[in-house]
Amino acid sequence: MIQAGVIGVGQTNYDSKRRDVSMAGLVREAIDKAMLAADIEWDAVDAVVLGKAPDMFEGVIMPELYLADAIGAVGKPVLRVHTAGSVGGSTAVIAASHVCSGQFKTVLTVTFEKQSESNATWALSPRYPYSPHINAGAGGYFAPFIREYIRRYEPPEHIGWKVAAKDRQNALKNPLAHLQIPGIDEKMVSETPMLWEPLRYLESCPSSDGACAMVITSEDRVGSRNVAWIRGMAVRSEGTLSAGRDEVNPQGGIDCAKDIYQQAGIQNPRTEIDCAEIYVPFSWYEPMWLENLGFCDLGEGWKLTDEGVTAMDGSLPVNMSGGVLSSNPIGASGMIRFGEAALQVMGLAEDHQVEDAKISMGHAYGGAAQFFAMWIVSSTKD
Amino acid sequence: MKKVAVVGYAQHKILPNAGALNEVELIMPVVHKVFNDLGISQDDIGFTCSGSCDYLQGAAFAFVEGLSAIQTSPPIKESHVEMDAAWALYESMLKIKMGDADTALIYGFGKSSPGNLDSIISLQMDPYYISPLWPDRVSLAALQAQILLQQKIITHDEMMATVIEARNNAANNPNALLTDHVSEDLYQADSLISSPLRGFDCPPISDGASAMVIASEDKAFEFTDNPIWIEGIDHSIESSNLGSRDLATSPTIQNAITNLNLKNINFDVAELHTQFSHEVPFLRKLLNLTNVPTNLSGGPLVGNVMMCAGLDAIGKTFQSLVSDQSDHGIAHASSGPCLQHNMVVHLERHK
Amino acid sequence: MSDDQAPKDYKESFIHLEYQYTAGSATTTFLNQVKEGRLVGQSCPKCKAVYVPPRGSCPRCGIATSIEVPLTDKGCVESFTVVHIPIPGNPIVPPYVCAMIRLDEADISFLHLVQDIEIDQIRIGMRVQAVWKPKDEWTHSLENIKWFAPIDEPDVDVSTLRFKPS
Questions:
Q1: Which of A80, A159, A202, B317 could form a disulfide with B331 if both were Cys (CB 3.0 to 4.6 A apart)?
Q2: Residues of A in contact with B61 (CB under 8 A)
Q3: Residue A121 or residue A56, greater confidence
Q4: HSE-up of residue A355 (Cα within 13 Å, Cβ side)
């Protein structure tokens, strides 16, 4: 297989309303930054891969058509990916597949969401005439799974607050992050209103506008560029309402992680992976995914969080950028994880850089915790 | 790079209104049909990819419902494009070429009957300048038809002949929605929807689903004695700004002709994702197919399942090459107003 | 300059689209029974998993769920959340309990409300039963069930509920 690497990552700043730009302007902002970072011109781009969550979030159907010019796709192949919340991650995987297949040398990929152009909670709550209207948004959907996690392993209540505070503290070191809350700590989180028990306001992700782009290229085009080598990548899906599915610890996540570890030759993720950007839209998903991804045994994830292992100065920093809890342009949120993982091993994460990061992980999930996309990137090729 | 072949294809009968059938109930029969034809199951599939459009169903994440038609235990390698399923085929082919899978299941589904397709499709346009004008899909297509007629690239007679031929061909297609014969008189008497397009020049509102299985050269012969090879596949997009496009030609089709070296190939059969009658003579001339039997299935004019009709063109070409024992087929898939995004596929049966 | 003269950086414009939803034949069968006050699931002919409400397929096996399985309106709370914020388009006044209800003999749960109990008394594994609207208000909707209410039976160990294929 042809090896591929990330040579440029570009992100907009994330905000609740980016009314200074159109949708086209938003994606182009991320693309320009990615191409500048990659030091390439348009003629080097062989294909474009666009990802975003539902079209109903902006009211534009198949936006690759309208955005063809803004994303520099005119005269080139373009593919539009939509795999629910995991889409930012699966778009990166598909973009890299364009290169690994040998069909293309250099691929530009971009994901975005401009949630301020519509009403996401409305878009997420279709009112079928034959269903009771008890839909309570994404938090209402995931909170019961979190409660079941708490029932199984009896972690202390402050774990959720701790994750929420830690990610927002990290966000203070990332000028692009949406939520910048000076002085944020566990106490402040614990005093915010309850939304969906056991989730409080600051334990939940914001709704953001933003875009993230990457340039992925084949090994023969890397040249002397700084590169994050893609050492393993995979996707897995499972049916929403499938009997026997464990929503707390989904098999799809377990299998997907094992797949990328095997590709990357990782025996022990806990010691071999230097840092990870994991899709944590609600605080408790940090310990839940640590277990699902095999960083520890079942029931031990909350202890890693509690002991500070996942903090910036811990031995396995998680969500150095501030994570989904600090910036959440849904369609881009997965790619931000993948791109931030790449920035770490490229040494370009600036104030939120993990010292000597050589191997990092990007993770995204979506739907009813049923769609997974992950990758391992490294500063070395093998 | 591994070669990739189409080994199986199944299409649901195209319906004007699938009524009580939901997406799962449309998808499952065609997936089972293609599996049964090949004697395989989901366990034999390395990658699964689908194409659909949430807005047709009127609910965000509607594609997730469709996945319930597929066996997903153990969890599967799977993805989805918010595009015609022809692009799901494209993505699947990349996965096979890179060695991530040896086989792939592709499915597409669409129900146009629940909503107003004209209104829905106008949301494809620039949301700040064009969509607020609610341009409908027929009027947009008519802009291109008018230019092609005025520049004498096509004629009214060719459009009429296309409609008559499509209906005649539909008689051979058990899944076609429109099979009534159309005479010249009947065509001429039909009223204009958006000049110069009459009702007969437009595709019917259609519901349906299709499924396809592709395989690497290592696997293809395990499934069939008749793999049809994807000899070439190319796609590209044009500007979203209709005013900046030359609608009298198609740079993306020209790209494909060059990139796939199509000039000197004698095609035996062609299936084009031509939703409107004027697009058939236009693309036949561009692709040098004037003497090649085209849209023997009747094409989208006799049944046009949104998000699936492009995959169907590829599937119908595959079926022709298998059943006629012919060698070269060409298929086309399209997306966007006035053929903005085009894919061309060269299929070949090896002797 | 007054507010309405200030340049605006955005303009709201509404998109109105109408759809005729279809539930699908499995759900239609289910809703026809719900109209009569009965809960009827469907089981997978292969792994025997019982789905309620049925969607017409078993995603474990990728086949149609053709066998009808009459169910009681009793079950347990598999998990739940207390919703404290109003949701657009949702008429229920917070706080309220949104629970994953697992009916007896069913192998998946569905979301519904739990009431007739103090919120802080609700727990995972609690036994509940449907509280139906008056018969003359029954329609083709699970809204025929107003909510689920606790019944005086011992709690269930939910870890035993995980489906195992037969």
A1: B317
A2: 54, 84, 124, 367
A3: A56
A4: 4
pLDDT band per the 50, 70, 90 thresholds, residue C1: very low
Give the pair of three-digit tokens for residue A314.
């811990």
Interface contact flag, C79 A242, Cβ < 8 Å = no
- Answer yes or no: do C21 and B116 touch at CB < 8 A: no
Assess contact for A359 and A274: CB atoms under 8 A.
Answer: yes
The residue extents of the domains of chain A are 4-120+206-378
Specify the long-range contacts of residues A37-42, CB closer than 8 Å, at least 24 apart.
A37/A7, A37/A8, A37/A9, A37/A10, A37/A215, A37/A348, A38/A7, A38/A8, A38/A215, A38/A217, A38/A225, A39/A7, A39/A8, A39/A225, A40/A7, A40/A8, A40/A106, A40/A215, A42/A72
Among A2, A64, A76, A240, which would you mutate to test the B interface (most chain B Cβ atoms within 10 Å of its Cβ)? A64
Check CB contact under 8 Å for C141 and A132. Answer: yes
Which of B25, B67, B132 is nearest residue C13 as measured by Cβ atoms?
A: B132
CATH number corresponding to A4-120+206-378: 3.40.47.10
Helix, coil or strand: residue A57: helix
Q: What is the pLDDT of residue B11?
A: 98
Name which of C13, C19, C64 is nearest B28 (Cβ-Cβ): C64
Distance CA C37, CA C131 (A): 11
Locate the chain A residue with the closest alpha carbon to C11: A117
Mean per-residue pLDDT of chain A: 96
Selecting from C15, C142, C164 the residue whose C-beta is nearest the C-beta of A244 gives: C164
> A229-255 pLDDT, tens per residue?
999 999 999 999 899 999 999 999 999
Q: Residues of A with CB below 8 A from C82's CB?
A: 194, 196-197
pLDDT value at position B2? Answer: 85
One DSSP character per residue, B263-286 reads TT---SEEE----STTHHHHHHHH
Question: What is the count of residue pairs from A and C with beta carbons less than 8 Å apart?
Answer: 125
Lowest mean pLDDT across A26-35, A125-134, B328-337, C47-56? A125-134
Q: Which fold has domain C73-158?
A: OB fold (Dihydrolipoamide Acetyltransferase, E2P) (2.40.50)
CB of A324 closer than 8 Å to CB of A280: yes
For the segment(s) B4-116+205-223, the CATH number from 3.40.47.10, 3.20.20.450, 3.20.20.370, 3.90.1150.10 is: 3.40.47.10
As a whole number of angstroms, the distance between CA A229 and CA A218 comes to 10
> How far apart are the C-alpha atoms of A312 and A321, rounded to whole Å?
10
Q: How far, in whole angstroms, is CA A345 from its chain's centroid?
A: 16
Please write the tens of the pLDDT for every residue from A277-310: 999 999 999 999 999 999 999 999 999 999 999 9
State the average pLDDT over residues C57-66.
95
Stated pTM of the model:
0.97
Taking residues A360-371, report their average pLDDT. 96
Q: What is the pLDDT of residue C7?
A: 64
Q: Do B20 and C63 touch (CB under 8 A)?
A: no
Our measurement of the distance from residue A315's CA atom to the centroid of its chain's CA atoms, rounded to an integer in Å, reads 21
